[in-house]
């Protein structure tokens, strides 16, 4: 599935899902895309920014506990 941002000739922007890019092309050529706001059949792809995910950063390292028994002993406060 692919989601496209679409825009009608009246400037209304909306999104719709398609099986693939060929599915969009077929529906656009057949005139079966319609603006949900005004019913305009002149619909085209709108300019859209790519969806780029952030990379996962590693969790900060826990300080080594100088209190013998480690954090599980509750001495340093980081384990609670």
Query: Low-confidence parts lasting 5 or more residues at pLDDT below 50?
Result: none
How do the strands of the widest beta sheet line up side by side?
Answer: 2-1-3
What fraction of residues sit in β-strands? 15-25%
Q: Termini separation (Å)?
A: 44 Å
Task: Detail the topology: elements first, then pairings.
Blueprint: E1 2-8, E2 13-18, H1 21-30, E3 43-45
Antiparallel strand pairs: 1-2, 1-3
Question: Can you put this structure into words, describing what you see?
Answer:
This protein has one helix at residues 21-30, and strands at residues 2-8, 13-18, 43-45. It has a domain at 2-45. The mean pLDDT is 80. Helix content is 12%, strand content 20%. With 80 residues, it is an alpha+beta fold. The protein contains 1 helix and 3 strands, in the order ββαβ.
Give a brief rundown of this model.
The chain has 80 residues and is an alpha+beta fold. The chain has one helix at 21-30; strands at 2-8, 13-18, 43-45. The protein has a domain at 2-45.
List keywords for this structure.
alpha+beta, 3-stranded antiparallel sheet, elongated
């Amino acid at each position: 599935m692919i989601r496209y941002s679409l825009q009608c000739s009246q400037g209304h922007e909306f999104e719709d899902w398609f099986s693939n890019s060929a599915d969009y092309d077929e529906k656009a050529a057949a005139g079966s895309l319609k603006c949900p706001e005004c019913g305009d059949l002149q619909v085209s792809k709108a300019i859209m920014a790519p969806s780029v995910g952030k990379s996962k950063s590693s969790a900060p390292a826990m300080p080594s506990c100088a209190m013998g028994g480690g954090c599980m002993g509750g001495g340093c406060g980081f384990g609670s």
